[in-house]
Amino acid sequence: MAKATSVEAYIENSNFPEALNLLREIITSTEVEESLKWNAPVYAIGGKNVIGLGAFKNHFGIWFFNGVFLKDEKQLLVNAQETTKALRQMRFESIEDIDKNAVLSYVKEAIENQKLGKELKPERKGKTVEVPEELQNAFDNNSDLKEHFEALTPGKQREYCEHIASAKRDTTKLSRLEKITPMIMKGIGLNDKYKNC
Fold it and tell me: What residues make up the domain containing 170?
């Protein structure tokens, strides 16, 4: 589908314009704010994304950004991917599949959940850094190295630890340690050169 310049253009250029217009009418009969994000219609409350409309080759649907909190009494929701934690979608193949009352009920519940602050926050990696044995031995023999390592951000510390720990052979671990020691002493992260590109 070509990049849409408006919600109307997105709907008209889809394979299901009549059905998407019906879903749009149901959704906009509530208090949501309509916009175009990621080249698709998105509906928000107070700047927080609640619902999205999407059309594909053989189906179309409604995305509920925090759909994991919906009761789903009618079993209408699917998890788009196994790794998706909060997002749920209601899929349709034709306009006849749309139960207006059910859709409105789910939309209203999603809005209410957003107002109640029900949101699945992205998981953050823990602050603790597990230092591999090889690096710990280097710290025991070089307090300067340890001091410079501790001055790094937790994320940079984690990158270095994972870099060493992910090696399968002891010789590779020691070789990696040898290569990163000057970088740690300079206070730069393992992947800094890629982050500034």
Answer: 133-195
